[in-house]
Amino acid sequence: MAGALFAPAAHAQYFALGKGAYPLEFYDIDFSYLADPANRTGQLDALHYIPVGIGSEAYLSLGGEFRQQFWSWNNAGHGLRAPLQNTYDLERIVGDIYFHFDRHLAVFLQLARYDAFNRISPSTTDQDRGRIQQGFIELKEPVGPADVTARLGRQEIFLGSGRFVWINDSSNVRTTQDGVRLRARFPNEATLDLAVARPVTSVLDAFSDWDTHSGVFGAAYASQVLLPNQLHLDEYYFYRRNIGAQYVGLAGNEDRHTVGGRVWGAFGPLLYDGDFAYQFGTFNNKAISAFGASTRVLYSFESLPWNPGLQLQTSYFSGGGGPNSKTIGTFSAPFPRPTMLNYAGLETLENLIEVYPAFIVSPTPTFAFRFGPEILWRASRYDAVYVSRATPLPKTMTPTDTAAYIGTNLVATAQWRLAPNIILFGEYLHELAGPAITLAGGHGADVGVVQIDFNF
């Protein structure tokens, strides 16, 4: 969940499901201003700034998160794989320790436990009895005109819009990686990110994921401002060695390269954000050639009551030509963000065409509601429909199932900020299944989630 939902009203309408005063990462909050006792106004300030007597700049920040989710599924996976029905709770407990030796050197440690209650066949993204979610050494130094931050160790990596490199926050266990990341900030607001890491595969047993890596990830991400507040341009390159990639009738290791760009900004009440990427590489003895694009625009009627807005999201993620094709044409983001489609992640960013108009209102500064139909097709009839974490549904690839239309999701989403650090969120999705699902023997799905998120 990226961005601030209840920042300026127009930005609120983007419905990015953000954490507001508490961003995705605790270490993105600068608590150094609390060194002045006059700035300490809240009860949590005593945790966020604890002076340490080893230097005038040394201090400790403590924080964390408690999140509870209630999920109810009917016909999960479009009714084409078990379990068809499941109602369960997911619980996340996180503790943060951020120790600043001075303005140049810091150490961050994040411990977490994840529990799943009543879930049938929970996955390793649902539960983990205990793990070091993040733990790294941080160095900050000016290098020429840039302020450079280097982090070495276990960390979560989120880049750009998060469409293609995401930390999977909607799942109980977030994606983390072991490696190094450099970030340079320039005076003209331009930034450059470089990262090399090994993704960590979570396990059920406590503190047992020290050598459970899956492949390799590398990234170079640059962003610059062309017109302040109006036009930003990003360019990026991602490399992903994926162990055990899956496509229809195929499984193996792949080396996939992604080159692309992002254009985003605002012109008055109009906000826009688009990613465009091409992929190449090899999968076993096959070449990869794939394309993906997704855009979102929003126009807010700020002078009207309830601050209504009209939002349109469109996406295209290419599909393959089937198991006998000499080329892998299925787009596969390094770490996709399926929640940009819907919070349940009923579909993923492979072999998909999406058109999603929505209407958004904010009756109060702390409450927003969105509703709209999400219409979906297969980009290629010779490729499967994909569900959670890039898993193809083989039943959608039969001689009799050549339909492109997947169906229409009727999605209603609401978010209410009960306090600066407490957010109540809910979403309900009703799928009207199309022939790409029904010809495979599937049915429309229903899924609902209620989530309470407390940060401190």
Rg (C-alpha, Å): 22 Å
Helical percentage: under 10%
In the predicted model, the low-confidence regions spanning at least 5 consecutive residues are 1-19
Reported for the largest beta sheet, the result is: 18 strands, antiparallel, barrel
Class derived from helix and strand content = mainly beta
Helix/strand order: HHEEEEEEEEEEEEEEEEEEEEEHE
Tell me the total number of β-strands: 22
- Number of helices, counting only DSSP H or I runs of 4 residues or more: 3
Strand content: over 45%
- Measured between the Cα atoms of the first and last residue, the distance is 17 Å
Please, what is the average pLDDT? 90
Describe this entry's structure for a reader:
The protein is mostly beta strands and 456 residues long. The protein contains 3 helices and 22 strands. It has helices at 9-12, 45-48, 435-438, and strands at 50-51, 59-74, 85-100, 105-117, 128-143, 146-155, 177-185, 191-199, 216-227, 231-247, 250-267, 270-283, 286-300, 309-317, 327-328, 352-364, 367-377, 386-387, 391-392, 405-419, 422-433, 446-455. The strands form 2 sheets. The protein has an 18-stranded antiparallel barrel. The chain has a two-stranded antiparallel sheet with strand order 18-19. It is globular, with a radius of gyration of 22 Å.
